[in-house]
Amino acid sequence: MSVIVTDEGFATEDWAKGLTDGQVIDLESDTDPEALSIPNAALIRIAFPSFSDGRGFTIARVLRRRGYTGKLRALGHVISDQYAMARRCGFDEVEISNELAARQPQDQWKFRADWRGHDYQSRMRAG
Fold first, then answer.
1. How far, in Å, CA of 72 to CA of 27, rounded?
2. Domain assignment present for 127
3. What is Dmax (Cα atoms) for the chain?
4. Mean pLDDT across the chain, nearest whole number?
5. Cα dihedral across residues 100, 104, 107, 113: positive or negative
6. Phi and psi (nearest 5°) for 64?
7. 76 in the Ramachandran plot: left (φ > 0), alpha (ψ -120 to 50) or beta?
8. Is the pLDDT of residue 127 over 90?
9. What is the pTM assigned to this prediction?
10. Residue 50 lies inside a defined structural domain of this protein
């Protein structure tokens, strides 16, 4: 079982349940984002095999820059401290294990949900 994290906290249901195989695409962290054609999928899940593997952030950024408008979900070992970065890179949500959700409860994720307000670079440009 897993937990979906959004800006509102832990989602009670996974909106993607019931999507068919063609509507969901799973990408591994070693996918070359420049080699991807922009899919017409409702959801792309990008794997994070460990919290120290940041290649998924690059994949999300490239997909958004190239015009993907569907939902992007970080899947795997993303920690709450990385949530704001995930959102800034283009992810809409994060899917974590129940074990990680128990170690990092909803309040830790919601603390970082104001990902625009905690963007150091934007604050410096505005000041």
1. 11
2. no
3. 47
4. 89
5. negative
6. -65, -45
7. left
8. no
9. 0.87
10. yes
Q: How many helices and strands (H and E) does the chain possess?
A: 5, 6
Task: Show the domain range for 51.
Answer: 2-12+21-29+40-116
Amino acid letter, residue 122? S
Helix H or strand E encompassing 5 = strand 2-6
Q: Tell me the per-residue pLDDT of 22-55, one tens digit each, with 9 for 90 and over.
A: 899 999 999 998 888 877 899 999 999 998 999 9
**Backbone dihedral region for residue 125 (phi beyond 0: left; psi -120 to 50: alpha; all else: beta):** alpha
Report the candidate in 52, 6, 7 with the shortest Cα–Cα distance to residue 29: 52
Tokens linked to 3:
């937990």
Residue in the structure block whose two tokens are 């962290």 = 29
In a domain, 105, yes or no: yes
CATH value at residue 80: 3.20.20.70
Task: Examine residue 125 and state whether it is found in any structural domain, yes or no.
Answer: no
Beta strands in 7-118 (DSSP E): 9-10, 24-27, 43-48, 71-76, 93-97
Q: What residue type is 31 in one-letter code? A: T
